Amino acid sequence: MTKHPPQPESVAGNGLLDRRLFLGASLAGAALAPSPAAAEPLAVPPWSLAPGVPFNAYGMPSKFEAAAARKWVAPVNPATPGIGASRTPHHLLDGMMTPSGLHFERSHAGAPTIDPDQHRLAIHGLVRQPLVFTLEALSRYPMTSRVAFVECGGNSGFLSQPVAVPPGPAPDVQSIHGLLSCSEWTGVKLSTLLEEAGVDPRAKWIYAEGADSAGMSRSIPLAKALDDVIVCLYQNGERIRPENGYPVRLLVPGYSGNMNVKWLRRIKLVEGPVMTKDETSKYTILLASGKAWQFVFPLEVKSVITRPSPGLTLKGPGFYEISGLAWSGNGKIKSVEVSADGGKSWAPAALQEPVLSKAVTRFRMPWNWSGGPAVLQSRAADDTGMVQPSRAEMFAERGMRGQYHVNCIQSWAVNDKGEAANVFA
Ligand SMILES: Nc1nc2c(c(=O)[nH]1)N[C@H]1C(S)=C(S)[C@@H](COP(=O)(O)O)O[C@H]1N2
Ligand SMILES: [Mo]
Known about the structure:
By secondary structure, the protein is mainly beta. 7% of the residues lie in helices and 30% in strands.
């Protein structure tokens, strides 16, 4: 009798395998596809025959990785090219961190070129002692670091459109979900600075304002400001990139991206919200009834499969790792389930450590693709008990007009050629 290696256990429809496969179980039964090793040694390639390139002052990605680039749409008005957003190519990345050069950018009037020596941050309003900081002064306070995502409230808004694949470039991870990135942020806790200014008991909110020509500004509850808000000077170990707020930005962990004021110049302590443009006409959630939710701060639990996804064509049936990102503005990711049959059956994915609060979590799921059609979905839950809704559930509550905080399940249809496309399943 021939001995077969144990087959990886199927856990849900259409080829999903047990996530314990990643914990050391044998892959021998899965149809992975390297060419069988030949008896001859590997050929010596040209790059092994001469010394390589010398040193450079600031490293850049391999020239073969030029596709891993931010993308943006041409501005509606060519006179204002800095109004809009560029998006992160998550389908070409792995892990949990977004390289700084690929962090998405959403700017209302372009990135100002700020001379750090001339920049000032003022804290005033309902305080005992108004303060003005130079960057040098800010740098002398105790610093803290944390990993956190920034996500625009308009991210994934495409899923509220009626047509899954409209004419034009096919919607993909980057165009639908690219207004999300995750970095390590370092700076001074806002509570440290507010303590020094002395908060007047009448103050219940702060008003934060940027130094860009949009003067973009938001109101933030004082309780949040004192909890985990950071006045950031560093992003992924280096000074914040110009487009992400150089030389100083606010990190408001888990809250709508818009509140993370870049190029921060002023914090005023106030009794109530200031009702700025970006918290009245914009960044409010319009309901089916015509009423709108205002001041919806934390970004609700969400996930998306980044691989496979549109543009990443499967090369024949066999074993694949389904991989994606999950995050919640309310806390930690508790679980991610994956379906390969359009939501008929689900199985839990493996969560990549570390799983951090208000940061992005990478999930992985082994899959044996039969070569036939499949609809891939992921459904995340966070540690507050919130679960990602289906698209139908979400629009039953909100109607089809909701453009902000869209967090429903993303579906990718894989056809028998291995191509993936957005579908509204
Ligand atoms: N001063 C200022 N801050 C700003 C913005 C802006 O245009 N000006 N855009 C906001 C929006 S809408 C978002 S989603 C985040 C995006 O941060 P990022 O560009 O670093 O990704 O910054 C916010 N902070
Ligand atoms: Mo945004």
